[in-house]
Amino acid sequence: MDVAILLAAGRGRRLGQPKALMDLGGRTALQRCLQALSAGGVDEVRVVYDGRSDPPPAPGARLVPNPDPERGQTSSVRAGLACAPPLDPDGNDRLLLHTVDHPLVSGDDVGRLIAAHAGRAPGIEIVAPSVDGRRGHPTVFSARMAPEFLALSDAEPAHRVIRRDAERVAHLVMDNPWLVQDIDTPADLARARAALRGT
Question: What's the burial of 9, exposed, middle or buried (CB within 10 Å: 0-12/13-18/19+)?
Fold first, then answer.
């Protein structure tokens, strides 16, 4: 089973609006992420949102409130992992971590990452996209790594799990620049909209 945790609790202070609700070509960032994850073969998406606000429209996804997202992104990862059913650490379950501020990832991108993890070499537990030497989103983890995320404190970023042991990480070279470009500001949003228009 392939389960994605989509982090969508950010208020987008620099952007001036919640990132999940950014309009990109007539669809929200959240809708685009959900479509890409589904098209890429993900079985279940858990959308972690700001529990102090109304839940965002997320058809087909499991909505998981984070009651205090100000604690940081790691608290949202833990919230997504804590909801049932748990991942099977001894089976073939996979965990994908994705962020709603990377909404121009395609279903093909997601599918290639899942396939790379399925065909990984012995000892590899993590497959991350790499564009021009930069690591991006989403990243795919073996389900047995879930306890490492649950053990992180609020002050510890989730990427600490990736950086803990380089020997268990494989980087899949890809060419979609939006795998490594997030949308944090109005200028970023304008560039994303221009990319969708082909200008």
Answer: buried
